[in-house]
User: Fold this.
Amino acid sequence: MDLLRAIAIGVLFGIALYQLLRRNVIRIAIGLVILSNAVNLFLLSVGAYNGVVEAYAKAVGQRSDALPQALILTAIVISMGGFSMMLALLYVIASRYRTGDSDEVRGLSH
Amino acid sequence: MFEQPSNSILAILPALIPLTGAAVAMLLRRHPYAQAAWAFGAMATACAVSAWLLWQVAEAGQPLVLQLGAWPAPFGITFVADPLSSTFAFMAQLVFVFGFLYALGAKDKAVHHDTFYPLFLTLAAGLSGALLTGDIFNLFVMIELVVISGAVLTSISDDRYGPEAAFKYFLISTLASFCLLFGIGSLYVSYGTLNMADLAQRIAADPNRPLLAAAVVFLAITFMIKSAAVPFHFWQPDFHTASPTPVSAMLSSVVVKIGVYGFLRLTTLLVPQFDWLNGALIVSGIAGVVFGGLGAIGTHNAKRMFAYSTLAQIGFIYVGIGWGAALSIAAAVLFTFNHALIKSAMLMLSGYLASRAPIKTAAFSVVRGVGKYAPLGGVLFLLGGMALAGMPPTNGFISKLMLFQSGVLAVQAGEMAASLGVWLPLALIGFSSILTFVYVFRALMVIWWEPFQPKSPEEKVKPRGDSLLAPAGLILLCLVLGLWAQPLADWSQHVSGWIGAPANYTRAVLLPEQSTLK
Assistant:
C-alpha cells in the first residue's frame, strides 16, 4: 500500500509539472490543480502510516492520526478559493489579450 | 526564572482587528466614504494595539502567548508575541497605516473599487497573523490569505497589465505554498508536531531524522520565493510594477519581510545547527545585491527601479542573517525595519509622479520633467534616495553602518573566519551604495531637472495628484530614526539576544514539564 501511494504521488507530480510547463494558460491552471492533489495525497500518507483503527472509534489498538486529514481539508478549501480566483483571472486575460498562449501574455516584460 | 505567562488576547489582536474590520468594511460597500473611514480607523486601531503589544513585551521582558481555546501548546494553535514577532508586526502595521493614508488621498480608480479596502485589510491581517503565529500550519493559512488578497488587489489595478502580473504572482506563490505544505508534511511525519516551539525542541533532541533536511530545503525555497530573493526573484519586478501604488508600496516593503522573518526563525529557532543554510543565505544575498543594483540601473520605470532595489536590500538582510553573529542578526532586524519605511515612501513617491503625469505610468519617458511642477515631491525623493543609498543623516545610513560594523567586529572577535563570504559583502556595501546613487540620481535628474516635453499640445501635467501626506510622514520617520537611532538599535540588539537563545521561546510557549530544551 505504501508503495502504491508513493507511486501515485510521483505520477501525479509528474503530470502536474508537465502541465505546468505547457504554454496554454488553462493547462497551467489544470497543472496546479493536479499538483495540489499530489500534495494532499502526500499529507494523507504522512499521517496514515500507522493508522489501523479510526481515530475516534471505540475500538482498541493503534489509532490513526486525524490531524493530517484536518490539514488536507484546510488545504483543499484554500486551494478551491485560489483556483476559482485564478479562473476568473484567466477569463480576464483571455478576453484582454485574445490568446491563451502564455508566450503571448507578456505585456510586462518590455 | 521564567514562568508560564497567562493567556493574553493581545497576541492575536493585530491580526484579528483588520480581519474583523474587513468583514464590516465588506458590509459598508455601498457607502464609499464610510467604508474608507472605517477601514482607516480599523488599521489605525490595529497599529495602536500592536504598538501597545510591543510595549508590553518590552516591559515584561518575556513574550505574550495566546493558547487558542485554552488548549495547551502542542495541541492547540498558539499565537506568540515574542520580541521578534511583535517588532515585525508593529513594523508591518505602521507601514500599513501609511498605506491606507496614501490610498485615502489617491486618484487611482482601483482604490474606489468597493472591495479595495476589505482586501487591503485582509492583506494586513494575513501578514500580521503570519508573523505572530506559533503554529507552522497556521503560517501556511495566513500566507495564503496574503497571496490571494495581494493577487486580487493587483488584478484590479489601473495598469492594464494588472491581471497578467496577478496571474504570474499567483502561479509562483501557489507553487511556494505547495512547497511550504511539503515542508510541513515532512516535518510532521518526522516529529509529529506542528507547534514551532515543540518542533524546535524535538529537532534539537533528535536532529538525524531523514526528512529534516528535505523539509528545511522546502521551507527555505518558500521563504526565498516570498521575499523574492535571488534565484527566485523573477516574478517580483513585474508584480510590483503593475499593482496599484498603495498596494505595491506595501508589497515591496513589508510583505516581502515574511521571508526574512521565516529565515530568522529557521536559523535561530528550528535548525540552528544547519550551517549550510547560512552559507546559502550569504550566497543568495550577495547575488541579490549585485543583480538588484544592476537591474535597477537598467530599468525605464521608476516603480520597477525600486522593485529591483528591493532585491538588493533584501540581499543585505540575508547576508546579515547568514553571518549569524548576534550583532549581525541585530543589524538584519534594524535593516528590515528601516528598509520597510524607506521603500514604501519611495514607491509612494513614484506613484505620486505617475498620478501627475499625462498618462498614468511611472515610465521615465512619460514622467520626464514632471517634477518641475512638484517641488515638494523632489525634496522627499532626494531624502528618500539618500536613505536608500545609506547617507547620513537618514536611517539607511544607520542600518548599513551596523551591518558593516557587525561583519568587522565578528571577524576581529574570531566569531567568523575572514573568508570571502565576509569580505565580499563588506565591499559590496560600498559598491551597492554607488549603484544606488547612480539610479536614484538618474531618476532625480530625468524627472526634476529635464524640461517637460509633451508629445502633443494637449498633453499637460495634471494640476493635482495623489496626496503627499503619507510619503512625507514616512520620510520624516526615516530622518527621525536616522538622527535618534539609539533606541531602535538597542532594541534590535535585545531582539537578537532574545532569539539567540531558543530555550526562551520554547519555555514561554510550552508548559514547564514539557519544556526540555536547555
